[in-house]
Specification:
The structure is a single chain. This protein is mainly α. Helices cover 77% and strands 0% of the residues. The longest helix is centred in the first third of the chain and has 44 residues, at 65-108.
């Protein structure tokens, strides 16, 4: 079924949806609601259970969760080629935007218009996050009833640990998984699996060699890309240092973009002295007014070091480790999640994710909603999202226009 579906979905269709999603995916975790809307609700290329499974897998890998979710969906639909195509076109709009803003910043150093836009967009982002809490919350907890009390308790605990104790994101995900196991496993609250689901090794058959050759062909784009990276590392010392530094960041970037900001600061300011502290703060601000992940700030830093080529190098480097791990672990993960013990752990992780999302939303609200103007933008955006179901793209455009005149 999945194979037949993937053949119906052309790369052209994947590119269109990925570009659109990458252009409108504002707000960190809020982008999941937009991804779900396009791939699950509108296109129906995957179902809700598959979408939740993808999110749970993306949470345990380093890197930007939004990119990983998109790459996983692309992998599910069109194997390695799909993952690479979806990732590339999802990140392209925000990469071009941040690169253009970097050019303007480093050449004119005038951030007045950026600050005014960020004020309005920051309020709008809080509305996107609130909408994400509602949308994903309904998926994980279909009804507000006692039946889901264990999930609510896990979400509440993770929220408290995140909001008040500021415990590292990685530890919170681990705690949510442990709570899921303790809450659901011993009471048998997991999806039943068939004998075939527990089979990790397939018996040898005469088509094994041809299947392996087909799989190798699917990896051809990935292999070529890595050869290009190797060439850069060998013959361009300046880019080599930049690439290796951001690859290290990407490998250690557990917990998403915001948790990685101290790591980026340490690597780029304390070790390499590529930026001043004020430039770094401005780069984070620019990254927040663009769609896509916070880790796209890597393009801003790369641009400062080596121009447009540096922006490309830093961006590729920071997202490469997570994609490599995805290719290595995805097929194993798809089988593991059918096992009861993994099933209940993932239930805990997904419940915990709602708690983290609520915590993130409140933190954004405290920082972004500080006067009647920002509250006005937030309220209008939230009404447009929840009541009238207006596409986020139009809300973003409206927020930009309002910000120009209001702030």
């Amino acid at each position: 079924m999945e194979e037949a579906l993937s053949q119906k979905i052309s790369l052209k269709d994947l590119i269109k949806v990925s570009l659109y999603t990458g252009t409108t995916a504002y707000g960190g975790p809020a982008m999941f609601a937009q991804i779900k809307k396009k791939f699950v609700t509108e296109k129906k290329w995957i179902d809700e259970k598959e979408f939740l499974d993808v999110i749970s897998f993306a949470q345990i890998l380093p890197g930007a969760t939004g990119i990983l979710v998109m790459a996983c969906i692309g992998y599910k639909l069109r194997d390695v080629t799909g993952a690479l195509v979806v990732s590339f076109f999802f990140i392209l709009p925000t990469f071009l935007t941040i690169t253009l803003l970097s050019y303007l910043y480093f050449n004119f150093r005038d951030l007045t218009f950026v600050k005014s836009l960020f004020t309005g967009l920051g309020a709008m982002v809080v509305a996107l996050l609130t909408n994400a809490v509602v949308t994903l919350g309904k998926t994980i907890f279909p009804k507000f009833s006692f039946r889901y009390y264990k999930g609510f308790l896990i979400a509440a605990l993770i929220f408290m640990f995140s909001f008040w104790l500021r415990i590292n994101f990685v530890y919170l995900i681990i705690d949510a998984g442990i709570l899921g196991f303790l809450s659901y496993y011993f009471t048998g609250e997991y999806d039943e699996v068939t004998e075939s689901d527990n089979s990790f090794l397939h018996p040898f058959n005469k088509d094994l060699i041809s299947n392996a050759a087909a799989r190798l062909a699917n990896y051809s784009i990935f292999i070529i890309a890595n050869l290009i990276i190797l060439f850069v590392l060998l013959f361009f010392p300046a880019l080599r240092e930049l690439f290796l530094s951001f690859m290290k960041i990407g490998t250690l970037a557990f917990g998403g973009g915001f948790n990685s900001i101290p790591l980026i600061q340490h690597e780029t300011i304390s070790i390499h002295h590529w930026l001043t502290m004020s430039e770094f703060r401005d780069g984070i601000a620019l990254g927040q007014i663009t769609p896509g992940p916070v880790l796209i700030t890597s393009a801003f830093i790369g641009y400062k070091v080596y121009g447009f080529i540096g922006a490309v190098t830093a961006t590729v480097a920071i997202f490469t480790p997570s994609l490599v791990l995805l290719f290595l672990l995805y097929n194993v993960h798809a089988k593991l999640t059918r096992l009861p013990v993994i099933n209940v752990i993932m239930k805990g992780i997904l419940a915990g994710f709602i708690g983290l999302l609520v915590s993130t939303t409140i933190h954004f609200g405290i920082e972004s909603l500080f006067d009647w103007k920002t509250w006005l933008v937030f309220t209008l955006s939230l009404i447009a999202l929840l009541k009238f179901k207006i596409d986020p793209l139009w809300i973003i455009i409206a927020a930009v226009i309002i910000s120009v005149f209001l702030f």
